[in-house]
């Protein structure tokens, strides 16, 4: 991980929505999970600032919230890009060179897996098997699936999304 951090900025509307989610699950046993899922939907990720609001709202400790957030892979501590690039590092993809594909994505976007570009356009994740092993190595950009990806093709794939924004 690099130390490139995106500062947290939440709007009053987002906070209002979060308070509503907290209110809905406040007295419910096991309410923390649905609250965190809701919070991630609202903010896109779960920075410390949001975890603090959840902890205060539910009357539990920040360390309890943090423990759950870091335990489940569905929760992210880092913001995600508009285009989420996922490179499968499952066994079938790995043996076909998925690590090289990931490296190429990281080099081109100049961030590491788990991070988001400063302009918020791209984030990278290394994922487990996505169930398309016949197409190994597999890379996804949001819902778009790219199979049998070579390192040479990576730049062209990413450019399609950069162009969409141009
Ligand atoms: S290992 Fe990559 S799709 Fe299954």
Major sheet attributes:
4 strands, mixed
Which percent range fits the helix content?
Answer: 40-55%
Structural class: alpha+beta
The DSSP helix count reads 7
Distance between the termini: 29 Å
Taking Cα atoms only, what radius of gyration do you get, to the nearest Å? 18 Å
Order of helices and strands: HHHHEHHEEEH
Provide the CATH superfamily of the largest domain: Glutaredoxin
General shape: elongated
The proportion of residues in beta strands is 5-15%
Ligands in the model, by name, code or SMILES, are: FE2/S2 (inorganic) cluster
- CATH third-level topology of the largest domain: Glutaredoxin
Using the coordinates above, name the CATH class of the largest domain. Alpha Beta
What strand order characterises the main sheet? 2-1-3-4
- Give the total of beta strands: 4
Mean pLDDT across every amino acid position: 93
Overall CATH architecture of the largest domain: 3-Layer(aba) Sandwich
Low-confidence stretches: none
Overall domain count = 2
Topology diagram in text:
Layout: H1 12-25, H2 32-43, H3 48-58, H4 62-71, E1 83-88, H5 91-95, H6 98-109, E2 122-127, E3 139-141, E4 144-146, H7 151-165
């Amino acid at each position: 991980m690099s130390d490139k951090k995106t500062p947290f900025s939440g709007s009053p509307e987002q906070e209002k929505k979060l308070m509503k989610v907290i209110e809905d699950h406040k007295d419910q046993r096991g309410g923390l999970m649905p609250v965190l899922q809701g919070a991630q939907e609202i903010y896109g990720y779960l920075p410390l600032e949001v975890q603090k609001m959840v902890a205060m709202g539910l009357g539990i400790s920040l360390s309890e919230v943090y423990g759950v957030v870091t335990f489940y892979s569905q929760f992210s501590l880092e913001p995600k890009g508009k285009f989420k690039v996922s490179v499968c590092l499952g066994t079938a993809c790995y043996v076909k060179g998925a690590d090289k594909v990931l490296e190429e994505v990281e080099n081109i976007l100049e961030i590491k897996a788990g991070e988001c570009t400063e302009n918020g356009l791209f984030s990278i994740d290394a994922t487990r098997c996505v169930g398309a092993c016949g197409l190994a190595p597999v890379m996804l950009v949001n819902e778009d699936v790219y199979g049998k990806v070579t390192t040479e093709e990576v730049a062209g794939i990413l450019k399609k999304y950069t162009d969409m924004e141009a």
